[in-house]
Amino acid sequence: MNLFDQNPLQNILPYGGNVIYFGKIIPREKADFYYEKLMHSIEWKNDEAIIFGKLIITKRKVAWYGDKNFDYTYSKTTKTALPWTEELLELKNLAEEKTGTIYNSCLLNLYHDGDEGMAWHSDDEKALGKHTSIASLSFGAERKFAFKHKKTAETVSTFLEHGSLLLMKDETQTNWLHRLPPTKKVKSPRINLTFRTIID
């Protein structure tokens, strides 16, 4: 351990999980490059969810990529993974290097502006296993990201910057919900990559 390290990575949750914010890990120019590449090379589709028996189509767009054609089911709809693009593999390798975890899949989200967000939820699908690790890379607009404890309702939040990395691991998905709150302040898009490990 380096006692003179001025920037130790700290858990932003007070208890019951482990969330590490690495901050900006990709220089601005390179982050701009990935943002443009992802915007135009990913097979974006409007997300779908079945809520109270009704099919809901979101404005937010998503894409699902992986080592092989993994199926991933959430909100009662199923996606089949597409093969990695060159840029996604580069970013996967970077996330693995920084977090010390190997990932085999990635769910991408495209939020066109601050009107689009994500409601409280946990990434606790059976396919991800227990105490899963999820590495989240952000490009584009800076957005607030919030956590809420399932029992105490205590909340914690941080801001995810262009070119930044956030890691959720250990009991986080068991004990905490998370969301991307809508905001009128943000007028530009954000792309988010969440690298995951599907248990085959």
Give the key terms:
200 residues; alpha+beta; eight-stranded mixed sheet; four-stranded antiparallel sheet; 16% helix; globular; disordered N terminus
What report would you give on this structure?
This protein has three helices and 14 strands. It has 200 residues and is of the alpha+beta class. Strands 1, 2, 3, 6, 7, 9, 12 and 14 form an eight-stranded mixed sheet that branches. Strands 8-13-10-11 form a four-stranded antiparallel sheet. A two-stranded antiparallel sheet has the order 4-5. The N and C termini lie far apart (36 Å).
Mean pLDDT: 92
Cα distance, first to last residue? 36 Å
Radius of gyration: 16 Å
Q: Outline, from the CA principal axes? A: globular
Query: Beta-strand percentage?
Result: 35-45%
How many beta strands in the DSSP annotation?
Answer: 14
Helicity level, as a percent range?
10-25%
H/E element sequence: EHEEEEEHEEEEEEHEE
Please give the count of helices: 3
Secondary structure class reads alpha+beta
Tell me about the largest β-sheet.
8 strands, mixed
Protein name: Alpha-ketoglutarate-dependent dioxygenase AlkB
Pfam families: 2OG-FeII_Oxy_2
InterPro entries: AlkB-like, AlkB-like_sf, ALKBH3, Oxoglu/Fe-dep_dioxygenase_dom
Keywords: Dioxygenase, Oxidoreductase
